[in-house]
Amino acid sequence: MTIPGPISPPPRLLMGPGPIGAYPSVLEAMSAPLVGQYDPFMTATMTETQELYRGVWATTNDATLLIDGTSRAGIEAAIVSLVRPGDRVLVPIFGRFGHLLAEIAERALAEVHTIEVPWGQVFPVSAIEEAIVRVQPTLLALVQGDTSTTMNQPLDEIGALCERHGVLFYSDATASLGGNAFEADAWGLDAATAGLQKCLGGPSGSSPITLSPRAVEVVQARKKIEAGIREPGDPSARDFVRSNYFDLGMILDYWGPRRLNHHTEATSMLYAARECARVLLLEGRDAVIERHRIAGTAMLAGVQGLGLTVFGDIAHKMNNVVAVEIPEGVPGDIARAALLEEDGIEIGTSFGPLHGRVWRIGTMGYNAREDAVMTTLAALEALLRRFGAAVPVGGGVEAARDVYRSA
Ligand SMILES: *Cc1c(COP(=O)(O)O)cnc(C)c1O
């Protein structure tokens, strides 16, 4: 065989719903030398990263750490560790990732109850309250931003609601964290998870998680059950966390002061996650959200300036992604492929009921930038015209520029 040359990816501007291009300093951090698992530098870096993520999540939770794996590793760790077989779990579904939470809860042998709104909408608090009263779940699992529909479910009143009804509150904030407001403590979250490859501006492969003291109690109680089981076939064994890798009780012991060996923390991903949080806090949490808001507003104005129809309830759209209907007669996948091949720009396709109907365009993390917005809109205009759509000349870039001028 011919041995291929060193890895050499083509230049790309990733303007889809994620993954997106990482901050250059994150890529640099990932090439830093490795140290041993219990090197004082390693454990100090873990501790430091925990503190940085308390800033990102807006929490004082001790149990703030990373799960090794992509975002769904964090989701799985939260759900399998908080849910015992037979527990009732309520999952309000407003897009693809709600279905994922429900599926993972099913695998954890929960009794799963779902409620749904049509894609492109979010739940009113009253609908969630009604379902909580009816189902009486032990856990509410709710996506914050669902990239499949671009919607951002308001969470600010949900924590108090869960508290009143004695329900644990978990949210998957993968798509939204860093680009939209998220207040783990002020909003009463018991557990929240994310990934790096959306607004945090890193590669996929590490999942930040935070757990309230109440969630930690649930996790620790299960550890005691496991410790008490001696005989195979002991009926209490059904309460076991259904995973070793994602057993938060064990993972907390590894990240905590006892440093009990579990997995080997993924060193280069730890460096990446640390740098993502460092970059965010250095710029300022509010300033980064505002940068996403402006980039998102500019992209929204731009696609509307091109005469495209935006999908969903714009008032509840995430800052960092917009879905546009593919104009009549334009071959969605062929046009998207041309944009990638000729301009090096990636935008997203869609799933489920939206498949073939909309493209999703993201402005996140490192790419929530004016030049990235302008380049994408200019290329999109040329692309649409080439595939026969009537678009106003300069309509996209002009509208987006106006947003930046008045920002
Ligand atoms: C993108 C996204 C994920 C991605 O999960 P991965 O395991 O990192 O691919 C999960 N949840 C939501 C809400 C997302 O938008």
TrEMBL record:
Cofactor(s) it depends on: pyridoxal 5'-phosphate
Gene Ontology MF terms: transaminase activity
Keywords: Aminotransferase, Pyridoxal phosphate, Transferase
Source domain of life: Bacteria
Domain Aminotransferase class V intervals: 43-349
Database matches in Gene3D superfamilies: Aspartate Aminotransferase, domain 1, Type I PLP-dependent aspartate aminotransferase-like (Major domain)
Coiled coil location: none
PANTHER family (alphabetical): ALANINE--GLYOXYLATE AMINOTRANSFERASE (PTHR21152:SF40), AMINOTRANSFERASE CLASS V (PTHR21152)
Family to which the UniProt record says this protein belongs: Belongs to the class-V pyridoxal-phosphate-dependent aminotransferase family.
Protein name (Swiss-Prot/TrEMBL): Alanine--glyoxylate aminotransferase family protein
